[in-house]
Design brief:
Layout lengths: L2 H27 L5 H41 L2 H8 L17 H5 L2
Helix pairs in contact: 1-2
């Protein structure tokens, strides 16, 4: 598995975690009666959705880089592919984001 495949797999895993947090928050919200608790829960759901959107955008960027790399390596002759492949950079990686789930959301599962 290539480095980019690993990043894509990691991003997919993080998205699944956030989806679980969001779902748990939504389930918990139906049980709440206190306005402050509901507002806190709504904020947690909103935050999880924002993290999901961010991670999906990051995954699209990484997939695009992977597609470009794969297309480039196919069109390059075998004698020059090693020198070209070593110049491809993975700069601008911003996949390290806090993906913590609210403890309250996890308790309701």
């Amino acid at each position: 598995m290539s480095d980019l495949d690993g990043k894509i797999a990691e991003l997919q895993r993080k998205i699944q975690v956030e989806l679980q947090c969001k779902k748990a928050g939504q389930m918990m919200r139906t049980q709440l009666r206190d306005r402050q608790a509901i507002a806190q829960c709504d904020q947690s759901i909103h935050d999880a959705q924002k993290r999901i959107e961010f991670l999906e955008a990051e995954m699209a960027k990484v997939a695009m880089r992977k597609q470009r790399r794969d297309t480039t390596s196919i069109s390059i002759s075998p004698s020059s592919s090693s020198s070209t492949a070593s110049t491809i950079s993975n700069s601008g990686d911003s996949t390290s984001m806090d993906t913590s789930c609210p403890k309250e959301a996890l308790k309701s599962q």
